Amino acid sequence: MRFNRAVKLVALVAILSCMVTICLWSTCGTRPYSVGAEENQANFVLTEYHKRGTNSISSSDQGQAEPRRVEEYHQIDCNINSETTIKCRREGPEVYIPFSFIKKYFEVYGEVEETDEYERLEFHHSNSIVHPPRATYSPDSMFMAFDHYNVEGRDRVKCVTASEGVPITVQWSKDGYHYPIQVAQYGLSHHAKHIVSGDPDQLVLEDGEEDSLDGWVMPDKKSQVKITAGDKNHNRVMEFLTSDSLLTKGITIAADEKGYKTFLLDVRFVTNGSITVVLETGAGDIKIHYVFSSVDIYFDGKSNIYYGMGERRSEWIHLARDLKCDLLKGLLIKLKMETIKKSYGLNRVVEIRLHGHGWVDNLTMSQSVHMDQFYDAANWLVRHQDERGGWPIMVARHLVVGVMELPPGWYSAMGQGQAMSVLVRAYLHSKQDKYLQAAINALRLFEVDSSQGGVRARFLGKLDWYEEYPTTPSSFVLNGFIYSLLGLYDLKLTAKGEGQAQAERIYNSGMKSLKTIIGLYDSGAGTFYDLRHVTTTLEPNRARWDYHTTHINQLLQLMIIDDDEIFKTTCQRWLGYLKGKRSRHN
Ligand SMILES: *[C@@H]1O[C@H](CO)[C@@H](O)[C@H](O)[C@H]1NC(C)=O
Ligand SMILES: *[C@@H]1O[C@H](CO)[C@@H](O)[C@H](O)[C@H]1NC(C)=O
Predict the structure, then answer these.
(1) How far, in Å, from the CA of 234 to the mean position of ligand 2?
(2) Which residues contact 221 (CB under 8 A, 6 or more apart)?
(3) Ligand 1 contact, 99 CB (< 6 A)
(4) Ligand nearest to the CA of 315
């Protein structure tokens, strides 16, 4: 809204410097940037405009008296490519084209910034930010700069389930499904955030170790809590017994002491039951109920949000929840984002309530629960790997309708590779072999061709390429391929024996391909997302700026693990494109 107003404001004052530069590039610029050349050409252009005549709206005597210092504007027509005409402004020797036109024509960005009654136009050739990785890299360090990722915050993520603790997406199917790449990126982003923020401050509300249970408030005479010896690791836990009906208040403990907005607990039920967290928002109290149900998420439109924990009653459940995210995704089921932002801000966590009969341990309010979220992703990957070592994607993917299609059940090299990066980190942190074994199992599909249900393509029948979307004809998506190489790199440095040799072989062969054909992705002003223009007769698929920046972020990471010149020079050039540089032409 602010922007529309801004555009109108600028229409008259539009950007001399950017404009002339761009105009010269696209219409008459044949030489690289040089001030002298630009001035001459600008004069030439303006002379042309003069000849076509103007629609003067200035007072003529002023204009004639002091032609070099004309301060008023008059309107002139601007004929665009001999096709359409738009209204421009002329001021003395300069011509101004409306910025709204410039933006669309050149796909550039800009906004009027106002601070202390001073306004200026912030012009940007591109709209995406490079996040350089840290100076060193190892398989247990931060993955690229994934601390900047907010996977669960994306619109297409319906929620993080309470049954498995990982995101479900509605990107290619309204029903919602787990997308292995998204699950892996969720894990990697929380792993990175944990490295940035360190161990969180926490407040333990109940772990069965204190004899006092004074913090707990009973809803009625029949309800009770007591400390018992747990049946897992022999540590003490708290037993609770009350009605499982959500119509009763439940056994309650205050949880607002430190303002933390994430919590975790271990819980096991005898009967049906639930955990309820009461949140105070700008629009009153909202209750989030974690219940035994196979429905992932439900909002009654008033003050109750439900998350289904599946049907895992009678086993110990570890639940770690980001309440801000759970609240937002719940409200979004029935409300618009603007309404939520305006009225439903989360002020504080009020209390936690238990319903039913069971045991609870490690009930903790926390600053963050990044490592729990990371392990939720790693455990999901271990649980859902199939007998081919893959994570099949159960929705159809129409990369190009009718040309590059994948029926449900396809595998992605990017999914396989990003999973490896998660699993290797989980192994190095926990020392549990199951994670490393799952990462090694994930290698197998890299040696199976796309046509056989694997992920390997061959460029010109020679160079191995691991396909994010293993279509036939091949698509050769660049960013997915590089992600798969980073996963292979993590694994080759972590595995031993045959697994190590296999990872290294697949990695080396992929790196050779990348160094050989990376130039094909360079358009001279940006990058291509894939090579569909090579493998089919389709037009090139230019990478939009955020994918172009992903390519750069990836090259910056590759430069740290491989000092081949090609990554440096390519990265330098691709960084230039973000600021409007172009490769030389003949
Ligand atoms: C368990 O409780 C939840 C929430 O009150 C309810 O939706 C669900 O139907 C109950 N399940 C059973 C088996 O009673
Ligand atoms: C509570 O946390 C401790 C420390 O992480 C762990 O050893 C214990 O098993 C947990 N309790 C339950 C019931 O999982």
Answers:
(1) 10
(2) none
(3) no
(4) 2
Task: State what percent of residues in the chain have pLDDT above 90.
Answer: 82
Q: Side-chain half-sphere of 253: how many Cα atoms within 13 Å?
A: 22
Parallel, antiparallel, or unpaired: how do β-strands 304-308 and 284-291 relate? Answer: parallel
Question: Class assignment of domain 201-367?
Answer: mainly beta
Backbone angles phi, psi at 570, to 5 degrees: -65, -45
pLDDT tens per residue, range 510-529: 999 999 999 999 999 999 99
Predicted confidence at residue 233, as pLDDT, reads 65
Task: Report CA(369)–ligand 2 centroid distance (Å).
Answer: 15
CB-ligand 1 contact for 395 (6 Å cutoff): no
Q: Are 456 and 464 in contact (CB under 8 A)?
A: yes
Confidence check: pLDDT of 568 > 80 = yes
C-alpha span between 78 and 216 (Å, rounded): 75
**375 Cα distance to chain centroid:** 19
Pocket test for ligand 1, best of 272, 276, 304, 305 (most atoms within 8 A of CB): 272
Nearest CA to ligand 1 atom 1: 272
pLDDT at 230: 67
Burial class (CB in 10 A: 0-12, 13-18, 19+), 568: middle
Residue boundaries of the structural domains of the chain: 74-124, 146-150+184-195+373-577, 201-367
Question: pTM for the complete prediction?
Answer: 0.87
